[in-house]
Design goal:
214 residues, eight-stranded mixed β-sheet, 14 strands, 27% helix, 30% strand
Length: 214
């Protein structure tokens, strides 16, 4: 049975993500086992990997790096072996070169760019950005199969990922200006929105991830 490693590093919305992935696997008949794990050996051998994230960039990066062998397992699985990878919310932001929340913190550096505080053009817009917002899909990608531009997804965040390579941005949302909603490069992808909280759109996205063959 193919396994999805859902990484437990103390900073994720694990129960919701686990339930949503299990439902996507069941309804999509993909046959995947969802393993919530802090074991680098499980991550290293998983067919695909999901990194959730809730909280501050620095805290999340510190928590991930505090697990002995986890960074090496991720590099081996994702960069060397090419396992499909999905980062969710701060899990996506950790793909960046650097996060600028409470100082500067180095990220995984898998997609060049920086994570900075949201600064909407409209001062009436509150931070954090919380709730349902439209997705504008910028380019076709298997992860957005059967999801139309204009579909709604659920966001909760105060910081945004500004990539250096605009080709890495798969979708944006508007919150006083364009905000990165999804990124992708090769076998690596991430969403600023929460698929596990985005109902039918999120379920379709997770099914697409489980079927993705980059």
């Amino acid at each position: 049975m193919p396994r999805v490693a859902l990484i437990d590093y103390g900073s994720g919305n694990l129960r919701s993500a686990e339930k949503a992935l299990a439902r996507a696997a069941r309804e999509g008949a993909t046959g995947h086992e969802i393993a919530v794990t802090a074991d680098p050996a499980v991550v290293a051998e998983a067919e695909r990997i999901v990194l959730p994230g809730v909280g501050a960039f620095a805290d999340c990066m510190r928590g991930l790096c505090a697990i002995p062998g986890m960074r090496a397992a991720l590099d081996e699985a994702v960069l060397s072996r090419g396992a499909p990878f999905l980062g969710i919310c701060v899990g996506m932001q950790l793909l960046a070169t650097v996060g600028r929340e409470f100082g500067e913190t180095a990220g995984l550096g898998w997609i060049d760019g920086e994570v900075v505080k949201l600064s909407p053009d409209d001062p009436a817009l509150k931070i954090p950005h919380m709730g349902w917002n439209e997705l504008t899909i910028l380019r076709p990608h298997p992860l957005f199969a059967d999801i139309a531009s204009g579909a709604q997804a659920y966001f909760v965040h105060s910081y945004e990922f500004r990539t250096e390579d605009r080709e890495a941005v798969l979708a944006v949302t508007d919150y006083g200006g364009p905000v990165t909603a999804a990124v992708g490069r090769g076998n690596i992808a991430g969403t600023q929105f929460h698929p596990e909280k985005s109902q039918a759109v999120g379920l379709r996205f997770l099914q697409n991830f489980l079927n993705w063959r980059p």
